[in-house]
Amino acid sequence: MVRISRFTMTAVSISMATVLLTGCFSKYDYNSASNYGSKRDAPRQDTSRAYQTQQQYAPVSHKVTKLEMNQFLSDQVAAMDGVSSAIIIMGDNVAYTAITIDASATGTKGGSGIYGAGSETNHYGIVKGLYNPYTPQDDSQHPSVLISPGNGAETEMHHEHLSHLFKQKIAEKIRSLDPSVQDVYISANRTVVNEFNQLAKESWNGRSLEPYREQFISLVEGTFGTSPTIPNQAEANGREQ
Questions:
Q1: Which DSSP category does 32 fall into?
Q2: Residues 216, 91: contact at Cβ < 8 Å?
Q3: DSSP string, 220-233
Q4: Parts of the chain with a pLDDT under 50
Q5: Is 126 left (phi over 0), alpha (psi -120 to 50) or beta?
Q6: Radius of gyration of the chain (CA)
Q7: pLDDT at 14
Q8: Strands (E), 71-205
């Protein structure tokens, strides 16, 4: 009869536990359609960017000559993990994308998590006075507002604080579905989302977006700027500084 020492049994148990733990965590520790924040295989800093590409090298202009909503691209981006809603307004051949975020993916916001710094929306619930703490005696919301400070999906004030890989995957999706797209701009800013929602309503009702073109240009210039972006560690650490 073979006798196994307590030490041997302990060593075997530790080895098995290590294998099991490695097996469990390895599944989630790589970038995937629902994980944009893994450091194990983080993209290198020289990874070719699919969004705001032209702005990496030279000043850009947002003075578009034609505006139209692209419902198909909007629906496809909205179906991605981590995206709660998406509205894509095509300015000539540039896809301006307004998104809200949900908890169906991790790593959407660089290092801060879904409800980390920069959050524009609270999630207190529907208790009277907490649904919208900014107007504690009035829980109503103007019908033109998609996202308010007191309710709605998650937003992010600064587009630079959306993780690189999250924006990269959105931009790659858009470009793969429509090769004519020359560039992609992505924002989850609450004001941008609400303004794009108004444009979408006009489009859904069959009305031209031309009357809103100058207003649109001003909005995206204020959001993304026109000066070249300074190379940073966004591709390496998942958050632009």
A1: B
A2: yes
A3: HHHHH-SSPPPP-S
A4: 2, 4, 6-10, 12-30, 42-46, 111-117, 124-131, 233-241
A5: alpha
A6: 22
A7: 45
A8: 83-91, 94-101, 183-187
| pLDDT on residue 229 | 85
Of 183, 206, 182, nearest in space to 68 by CA: 206
Instruction: Report the predicted TM-score, pTM, of the whole model to 2 decimal places.
Output: 0.72
- Nearest CA to 77 among 60, 48, 99, 59? 99
Q: Which residues are paired to 67 by β-bridges?
A: 91
Contact between 56 and 171 (Cβ < 8 Å): no
Cβ-based neighbours of 48, under 8 Å, separated by 6 or more: none
> Closest Cα to residue 163, out of 228, 208, 103, 113?
113
Cα separation of 218 and 212, whole Å? Answer: 10
CB-based contacts of 35, cutoff 8 Å, min separation 6: 28, 105, 106, 107
Give yes or no for a contact between 100 and 85, defined as CB atoms under 8 angstroms apart.
Answer: yes
Give phi and psi for 158, each to the nearest 5.
-105, 125
Rounded to 5, what percent of the chain is helix, strand, coil?
35, 15, 50
What pLDDT does residue 50 have? 94
What's residue 103's pLDDT?
83
102 token code pair: 């949900």
Residue listed under structure tokens 């710094």: 117
